[in-house]
Design goal:
The chain has 14 helices and 51 strands. By secondary structure, it is α+β, with helices and mostly antiparallel strands. Strands 22, 23, 27, 28, 29, 30, 31, 32, 33 and 34 form a 10-stranded mixed sheet that branches. A hairpin with a 1-residue loop joins strand 36 (494-495) and strand 37. Bound molecules: beta-D-glucopyranose.
Length: 926
């Protein structure tokens, strides 16, 4: 039935066209309504000008949208007939995502209801969707009547690591009476520091380390909780635990940055509407009382927590407690220069529990537990103790050869918790105001008579509360381990801000690391709002620098007043990636000016288009010529990297200007890009496309080719030199943080797919599988952070949990499995897998804004099978590798019948396309 393949790469355009029926019918309603960057019925929402998105249901008669109508009202009862806030009216449009609200101005606290309906390809109207809602938080500082409240802990602070002053954690409470039953209540709350809040003995939420980390000198995020069900008529009590966190604790290299070692404080406003119609407000103010004599004695992000159970205060979060020995708090008014704004992305939560534990060793009242995965969060401890004894809890990412802890890579971070027992018996303890990066936990100081048990330790994995978004799997065990390592590298470094590493005395928002990983991160997790929130912090930080500088890290606790190429470009590259992955133009609008200013920074430092700025360059390139710290920057020269990124960012800004309709600027930045590219070629490459330097590097070619900086004829020559470089390295990577993510894309564009597979599947140093062969369960900072032969890399900068090299994950989704977005937000999907003899199957799925898309292939009995899922309201191109029309069967029909398919929506999971391509032969190059 199926004929010989003809070395053809077919492209099928899948158009979701429908049959033309005349009778108007009512079709199923839209589903999964979302607000702005993916919020579902939020309260305390941050944005009074949101966007609306919905999905079309998967159904026989729904292929695409031809029109929509959104209606918005101040009360549920007004829908659908009398929307008083906005009626978009019927809009002819296929757009079902990110529709701008254009109604009446919305106010703080306002609760808003909305509905949507759509018309399908035949003009049939859907039913109205379910009613969704959102409620705004306190949008302006003037909405706050509360005061910053807390004890002055600076005056009796303690000296910690490197003599750094530490505040004692504090306990704050306020009792109040309510005169009638409660109709509704909202708690608006934040802190300078990190807090946990209780109402009448109940913990208000399972949020962790709130309010999270922003540039606190510009903006502090606030949280909103619905506490209606927790209040009582008559006596109530609000109780808050408060520690230094990122605001007042040791962060970065040891300075307290904000407001000169200010004591942590809370700001809270409990607004209650009573059943009798009256309102009552409880504020943080001088009527609160506090103590530092509670059980949490010390807590620091880097150094861990100390808990003394002797100082527990039973019932302190309830009204039966007597706080007569507590002392009055101090207060300060809120200032106008620090913006209080509702949190615009998900809080951190406990996301997973690792409880498959192994005991590694027990020696001298010290037991080592292995949670079998390098993870980030805290341990949950349940262990027998003797009264007065101190349990010491240490952490390590890996063990030394003698099974003791490898902690030199934590550098000055003590990362140790202590628990002091108040009685004999089993204690339970989970640290609250710190987090650790670890796979191994050592407990010492437990009851000597007890035999350590696996149940003593569990690992609570913590990160920002985004959902999983994609899956990738294949027939190859190590490739799957790589996917798992990438995934864990992400989980472990997305704790409120994107961090370089989660364990040593950094854990900072390094922009370069984030820039390279953000597309892969968005394949794996739904993190649209996570990135846009961090970009806001970036804009705020840039505003401190009149010359447009973007610091190395955001929030900028290093304060070096310096910028690096490849790092600061996150300001342009990340918005561009978000737009392409989500289709949300708002992110371009929000960050366009920041991007322009960043280019202005390059311009102000450039002579003849070569910017003379700092660069970390191709960070941690293997086999650098120079050794030691200076070698970290690799061999690709700084000025080349600067010029390449200057050009690339100018090019992207030109494209962004085009999308935003800024015609003049589109041209201006395109011209600039061309001028920079010319200077780049003249300065760094000769006529034979050879990089003009004795020390050739893969990355100098990769940047030149990928950023399109050479004339077409020079580019072809440069490609040959790149291949020579790779050959010289015996098909190993010669790239650092900047070159590695680009390598697969460049080789792919060159048709060098087999070579890319060779590099990816290399087992020896430097390669992705090398670290897997050495036991890695996450991505490592260096290709050789550890080896079985030589042990740990002696450099102190040696994180075993650093996501940058995981950036290859994007290529695994897009090309190994074959699923990518061809038009922003997957409006058009490309299914284009590139099988290789090293694999017999691969598949990926992604939850797009339109529904799930997937690409899954396998080769069995010389036949290539591809199954693709294309959600409604999108189109797709399917490229079938090594195929000819005569031997391809699509959805049961020979392809040669037609190359443009009408695919009917089918089943629960969207439109399915099944491809069968016979006589599959790997020798047929694409
Ligand atoms: C961080 C990196 C970062 C680099 C830049 C390191 O200390 O961990 O990942 O990008 O510094 O120099």
């Amino acid at each position: 039935m199926i004929h010989k393949s003809l070395f053809l790469n077919l492209c099928i355009v899948v158009l979701l066209l429908g049959s033309t029926s005349c009778a108007q019918e009512i079709i199923e309603k839209p589903k999964e309504l979302l607000l702005s960057e993916g919020f579902k019925n939020p309260i305390g929402f941050y944005n009074a000008k949101p966007t609306f998105s919905w999905k079309l249901p998967v159904s026989e008669n729904i292929k695409s949208q031809s029109a929509f109508q959104v209606i918005v009202a101040s009360s549920r009862d007004l829908l659908p007939n009398t929307p008083d806030l906005w009626d978009s009216k019927k809009q002819k449009s296929t757009q079902s995502t990110f529709i701008n609200y254009q109604g009446k101005e919305l106010q703080s606290r306002q609760k808003v209801f909305w509905q949507v309906r759509f018309w399908n390809q035949n003009g049939d109207s859907s039913e109205w969707s379910e009613i969704n809602s959102f409620e705004l938080g306190l949008l302006n500082n003037s909405d706050w009547n509360a005061k910053w409240t807390g004890l002055d802990t600076a005056k009796d602070s303690i000296r910690g690591v490197r003599k750094f002053l530490m505040h004692r954690p504090q306990y704050l409470r306020k009792e109040f009476q309510l005169s009638s039953d409660i109709k509704s209540a909202r708690l608006y709350i934040t802190s300078k520091g990190v807090f946990d809040v209780h109402l009448n003995g109940e913990n208000i939420s399972d949020d962790i380390l709130t309010p999270g980390w922003t540039p606190y000198n510009h903006r502090i995020e606030t949280l909103t909780y619905d506490v209606t069900g927790m209040l009582k008529a008559k006596e109530n009590v609000l109780a808050v635990e408060l520690a230094s966190g990122w605001h007042s604790g040791r962060i970065s290299r040891g300075k307290a940055l904000y407001e000169n070692f200010v004591s942590p404080k809370i700001l809270c406003q409990l607004e209650i509407t009573l059943k009798d119609g009256s309102k009552q407000v409880v504020l943080s103010d001088e009527t609160w009382k506090g103590t530092t004599n509670g059980p949490i004695r010390l807590a620091g992000i880097y150094d861990g927590e100390t808990y003394d159970a002797n100082l527990e205060m039973p019932n302190w979060t309830t009204t039966v407690f007597d706080d007569k020995n507590w002392i009055p708090v101090e207060t300060t008014s809120i200032s106008t220069d620090v913006k209080l704004a509702p949190k615009r992305h998900q809080t951190v939560k406990n996301k997973l529990v690792l409880d498959d534990i192994e005991i590694v060793s027990v020696k001298n009242n010290a037991a080592i537990f292995n949670v079998k995965q390098n993870m980030v969060g805290v341990p949950k401890i349940k262990v027998p103790m003797k009264k007065g004894d101190t349990l010491k809890i240490r952490f390590s990412e890996m063990l030394l050869s003698d099974e003791t802890f490898y902690t030199t890579n934590y550098r000055s971070a003590k990362s140790t918790d202590y628990y002091i027992a108040a009685k004999n018996g089993v204690i339970e303890y989970t640290p609250k105001f710190t987090f650790h990066g670890f796979q191994f936990v050592e407990l010492s100081g437990y009851d000597r008579n007890a035999t350590p048990d696996k149940t003593w330790v569990k690992g609570l994995v913590q990160h920002s509360n985004f959902e999983e978004n994609g899956t990738f799997t294949s027939s190859h065990k190590k490739l799957n381990q790589l996917q798992s390592n990438i995934n864990w590298g992400l989980r472990d470094n997305l704790l409120d801000v994107p961090t370089d590493c989660p364990q040593r005395d950094e854990r900072l928002g390094w922009t370069g690391d984030a820039q390279v990983i953000s597309p892969t991160a968005m394949f794996n997790f739904k993190m649209h709002s996570f990135w846009t929130a961090w970009l806001q912090s970036m804009r705020e930080t840039q505003s401190e620098h009149s010359n447009g500088l973007i610091p190395f890290i955001i929030p900028d606790v290093l304060q070096r007043n310096n910028a690096s190429s490849g790092w600061g470009d996150a300001a342009v590259i990340i918005p561009w990636d978000i737009y392409n992955i989500t289709g949300d133009k708002t992110v371009l609008e929000e960050n366009y000016e920041m991007g322009k200013k960043w280019i202005g920074y390059y311009q102000s430092k450039a002579e003849e288009f070569i910017p003379n700025i700092h660069s970390f360059a191709d960070w941690l390139q293997p086999y650098p010529t120079k050794t030691g710290k200076i070698g970290n920057r690799g061999d690709t020269p700084r000025l080349l990297v600067n010029t390449a990124y200057f050009a690339h960012s100018a090019h992207l800004i030109s494209k962004i200007a085009g999308i935003l309709g800024k015609v003049e600027e589109e041209k201006r930045y395109k011209d600039l890009y061309k001028e920079i590219a010319l200077a780049f070629e003249n300065n760094f490459f000769d006529k034979n496309g050879k990089f003009k330097s004795k020390k050739q590097t893969q990355t100098s070619y990769l940047l030149a080719i990928h950023f399109n900086l050479l004339k077409p004829e020079t580019k072809i020559k440069a490609q040959k030199h790149l291949l020579e470089e790779i050959k010289k390295a015996d098909n190993h990577l010669g790239t650092g943080f900047l070159g590695t993510p680009i390598l697969p894309k460049v080789l792919d564009d060159m048709g060098e797919i087999d070579l890319m597979y060779k590099i990816l599947f290399k087992e020896t140093y430097p390669s992705w599988f090398y670290s897997i062969n050495q036991g890695a369960t996450t991505m490592w900072e260096r290709w050789n952070s550890f080896s079985k032969e030589d042990g740990f890399n002696p450099q102190s900068m040696n994180s075993l949990n650093h996501y940058a090299y995981g950036a290859v994950g994007q290529w695994m989704y897009e090309r190994i499995a074959g699923l990518s977005s061809l038009e922003p937000g997957y409006k058009k999907i490309r299914i284009a897998p590139i099988p290789n003899e090293r694999l017999t199957a691969a598949s990926a799925s992604v939850k797009t804004s339109f529904g799930e898309a997937s690409s899954s292939w396998k080769i069995e009995n010389n036949t290539f099978y591809l199954e693709a899922t294309i959600p409604p309201n999108t189109t797709a191109e399917i490229h079938i590798p090594n195929a000819s029309a005569e031997n391809v069967v699509v959805n049961g029909k020979f392809l040669k019948d037609t190359r443009t398919l009408k695919i009917l929506s089918s089943g629960e999971r969207g439109t399915k396309v099944l491809v069968e391509s016979g006589n599959y032969n790997f020798q047929n190059k694409l």
